[in-house]
């Protein structure tokens, strides 16, 4: 975290502990003035330190209780086209380009196995997609976290 000083790291650590903490609560916890905390939060936000709020929402109450990962093998020269088409599928939560034997790892949510089959079919129907390998997520064992890095 080379771009952040000790105050920034302390503030990020406090937010990792309680992301709903108010500015006043953060100021009290860290022994800083409210104005300092507000200014630091604004600077951190402007620097891109915070991810979009929607990353914290659970798709299960929206009717999508299942999650899967789809490994996608594509024609490399058409990768941008494939990514654009995959991004148009609403059930796609995120996709990562990978090195190695898999080109894209796509995280999707679905209503049931039939829905997953449909989503996989949509991806396979993209011209430059050569094949997919789908794995149903059985459970999140280590949730997304940054606190260990902040405490390091």
Detailed description of the structure:
The chain is α+β, with helices and mostly antiparallel strands and 152 residues long. The chain contains six helices and four strands. It has a four-stranded antiparallel β-sheet with strand order 2-3-1-4. A hairpin with a 6-residue loop joins strand 2 and strand 3. It is elongated and about 55 Å long. The N and C termini lie close together (10 Å). The mean pLDDT is 93.
Helix and strand layout, with pairings?
Elements (H helix, E strand, L loop, with lengths): L5 H12 L5 H8 L3 H13 L19 E9 L4 H9 L4 E6 L6 E7 L2 H12 L4 E8 L10 H5 L1
Antiparallel strand pairs: 1-3, 1-4, 2-3
Helix pairs in contact: 2-3
Task: Summarize this entry quickly.
With 152 residues, the protein is α+β, with helices and mostly antiparallel strands. 39% of the residues lie in helices and 20% in strands.
Using brief descriptors, characterize the structure shown.
four-stranded antiparallel β-sheet; 20% strand; alpha+beta; 39% helix; 152 residues
Write down the overall mean pLDDT.
Answer: 93
What's the end-to-end separation, in Å?
A: 10 Å
Strand content: 15-25%
Q: Provide the low-confidence segments as ranges.
A: none
Can you count the helices? 6
The SS-based structural class is alpha+beta
Radius of gyration: 20 Å
Globally, the shape reads elongated
Number of strands: 4
Biggest sheet statistics: 4 strands, antiparallel
Widest sheet: strand ordering: 2-3-1-4
* Element order: H for helix, E for strand: HHHEHEEHEH
Helix content: 25-40%
């Amino acid at each position: 975290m080379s771009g952040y000083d000790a105050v920034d790291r302390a503030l990020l650590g406090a937010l990792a502990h309680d992301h709903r903490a108010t500015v006043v609560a953060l100021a009290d916890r860290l022994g800083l003035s409210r104005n300092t905390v507000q200014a630091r939060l604004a600077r951190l936000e402007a620097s891109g330190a915070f991810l979009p709020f929607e990353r914290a929402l659970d798709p299960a109450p929206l009717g999508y209780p299942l999650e899967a990962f789809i490994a996608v093998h594509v024609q490399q020269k058409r990768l941008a086209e494939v990514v654009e088409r995959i991004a148009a599928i609403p059930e796609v939560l995120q996709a990562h380009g990978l090195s190695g034997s898999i080109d894209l790892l796509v995280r999707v949510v679905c209503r049931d196995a039939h829905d997953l089959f449909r989503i996989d079919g949509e991806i396979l129907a993209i011209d430059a997609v050569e094949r997919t390998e789908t794995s149903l997520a059985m459970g999140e064992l280590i949730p997304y976290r940054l606190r260990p890095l902040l405490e390091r």
